[in-house]
Amino acid sequence: MSASIFRHTISNAIKKNLVPGIVLQSFAVIIGLCYFYVPSCQPYFSLLATLKYDLGSVYAFFATALFGGLIPFIYLMTTKQFANREDFIKLFLFYFLFWGVKGVEVDLFYQLQGYWFGYQNDFMTIATKTSVDQFIYSALWAAPSIAIAYLWMEHGFSIKDTRLALNRTFLTLTLPATILSNWLVWIPAVSIVYLMPADLQIPLFNLVLCFWVLMLAVLNKKADTDVPASVLTEKTSNK
């Protein structure tokens, strides 16, 4: 595969995700500023923190299933992107269960980061957590696993077809573009997440995630290229 194709793919990833990334980062910053500097918002933050503290992983599952799965699913349903009833049921289960499980996974990862590095909001703690999050967890597991899961969904939940789609193009173009896109959006966003107290990290993650998945759904609907530039992996040209 030529270097020019790779450069074009990466360039397309940057162009496609730059503006949504700035919007989402601004959204996260606004929430952070409201928490630290707007006293009238404290009751809402306290309510979320209490729910997270009381329910733990159960909250992480259902909140992430709602914000990362159900709300984007409703968008896809209302924009008539389902071919038939069978697709409707399968996709509902996929979106809800997949993102619910991911929510528990992220919650456990945040707790592990807190155990390793503490919950201080000084520069070194935030930088360390963000680096481990984005350059180890996200790059090596989170982004690839989500990309493969969406590939499986887009191939009708066929393991055989998905295995065929996990080709050189996917490994050398799709995954690098996916990981870069995640960095553009999530490096600043998770820095804000890690500024928050432990029981508010998942609630803030869910709010950013909701807008992120919705934006990616809109972008991918409008995309006219075969190589994806986001974690919602589009079909490759040799499918």
Automatic annotation (TrEMBL):
Note whether Protease occurs among the keywords: no
Q: Which residues cross the membrane?
A: 21-38, 58-76, 88-110, 135-153, 173-196, 202-219
Q: Is Transcription given among the entry's keywords? A: no
Q: Lineage from the top down?
A: Bacteria, Pseudomonadati, Pseudomonadota, Gammaproteobacteria, Alteromonadales
The name this protein goes by in its record: Carotenoid biosynthesis protein
According to its UniProt entry, this protein's organism is Catenovulum sediminis
Q: Which domain of life is it from?
A: Bacteria
Keywords recorded for this protein, A-Z:
Membrane, Transmembrane, Transmembrane helix
